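Entry type: protein chain
Record version: 2
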Amino acid sequence: MKKKKIYIAGSGGMLGEAFYKVFKEGYSLKCTDIDKNEEWISFLNFNNFNKYLNDVKEFEPDYLFHLGALTDLEYCEENINETYLTNTISAEYAVKISNILNIPLLFISTAGIFDGLKNQYDDWDIPNPLCYYAKSKYAAEKFVQLNKEQHIICRAGWMMGAGPKKDKKFINKLAKQINDGNKTLNIVNDKLGTPTYTIDFAKNVKLILENNIWGLYNLVCEGKTSRLNVAKEMLKFLNLDKEIMIREVGSEFFKSTYYAPRPNSEQLINRKLKILNMDIMRDWKTALNEYLEIYYSHLKK
């Protein structure tokens, strides 16, 4: 039986690596990015509509996955036009291309589109983004919903995956501090969220896709937590909880570095997936421990 084909745009980051690993056996893939950091990635700037269209057309895929985005919140605050081009307009391009080819589209959104005034958000809560990164992602999300019938939109939480090479998020930032010999970690105690292991995320997307159940989904690991609890669990796994002290601080402590507005809570509930009996995301602690074992076990005492 001939393998179905997936074109994955913006596949150079931590999420792209997970999609490549999860989908490469059962599908024929073309993975592109502006950063050719793997031998399986070819160059494509999806901010150029004609080049994006021609490259996808040439591959003749059965699905288009649009993964890439600018995710550095402070960079997005300083570069608003580039943020809307990369995070919103390129998604509009993906919609147009998928409609021209009459194929389903996957778009990745974020828990950051909520304002954090509630503790938890399900798939039907109304977003109210605070920063330009979140505004650009929500604008794209709405465009996809309005203009693409066969779409899957998945909102991810606090991403973790791909290890030191590609992980630019919380876990790798902590790992760098530990590796540098820091004996005290300053961790915020006022931010709630839900870790999302990229491998689990890609596996659950595969399940949704193969059941042809289009729509919008919250897609995060199980469990409620905070930055503080994630840091504690990480030190516990590495057997460093007696060696390294956590100093609890408020977000104001980091305001000169992380000045983009962030919601106090980004906790999502996979309510729709649960209703449809399609939630296979594991508990965040289980996923975190597996991730640490694969990529950061050298830090263990």
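Comment: The chain has ten helices and 15 strands.
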